[in-house]
Write a structure and sequence with these properties.
The chain is mainly beta. Helix content is 5%, strand content 46%. It has one helix and eight strands, in the order E-E-E-E-E-E-H-E-E. A six-stranded antiparallel β-sheet has the order 7-6-3-2-1-8.
Length: 102
């Protein structure tokens, strides 16, 4: 594992992969959110990517309900879940190459 490409993540909700996670890159905190679609009865095939405001980033450890985070963030991109590469455990790291897509 090339440590220059791997960024640590914190996540909530896991179904095959983290469905909501935050990752820090270049001193900015990003939220990846693959929300559950009630009509489809499945998780979205995409992550909505947000850059968290400094206020949200400072309080990330104390927020009980991460579902509020997108309201405290700036939309950045939409990326396909299949395009995000996780470490073997799918719970610790994400490949930084995903940021090359936006």
């Amino acid at each position: 594992m090339n440590s220059n490409r791997w960024l640590p993540i914190r996540y909530r909700d896991f179904y095959d992969v983290p469905r909501m996670f935050v990752v820090e890159r270049e001193d900015q905190l990003f939220l990846f959110d693959s929300a559950f679609d009630e009509r489809a009865d499945d998780y979205s095939g995409d992550y909505a990517v947000y850059r968290l405001t400094s206020e949200a980033a400072e309080s990330i450890d104390s927020i009980q309900n991460w579902n509020e985070l997108p309201t405290k963030a700036l939309p950045v991109a939409i990326v396909n879940v299949a395009d995000v590469i996780f470490d073997d455990t799918k719970r610790k790291f994400v490949d930084s190459g995903i940021f090359d897509r936006f």
